[in-house]
Design goal:
Pfam families: Spore_YabQ. This protein has about 110 residues and is mainly α. It has one domain. The protein contains four helices and no strands. The protein has helices at about 5-30, 35-65, 70-85, 85-100. α1 runs parallel beside α4. It is elongated. It starts with a helix and ends with a helix.
Amino acid sequence: MPASVFDQISDFTSCFFLGFAVGIVFDSFFFKRILKRRTKEILFFISSVLSTAVLIVGLMFINFYTLKWYTFLAIACGIYVYKNTISPLYKEFLKKVNKVLSFNKK
């Protein structure tokens, strides 16, 4: 039985916000610019694993792993919109938090 239009719109919206969450996870691990190369590689690995876990759990709750073309489109749109709207503000917030926590006067 095909899904109704409302179900498809609901899935699209949920996957859109899932893409937003993946963008937040990715930015959370890369807010500190002065890192050694090995530390950057480890943080990239951790953020990749965490992003994958967020996607898997999100897809399980949204549509029980049913992947359709609009699922990928919604996740990509969510990441794109996050990177172009909220990401700069979130990175500035993380820089200020980092400055306060490390007592670094840059």
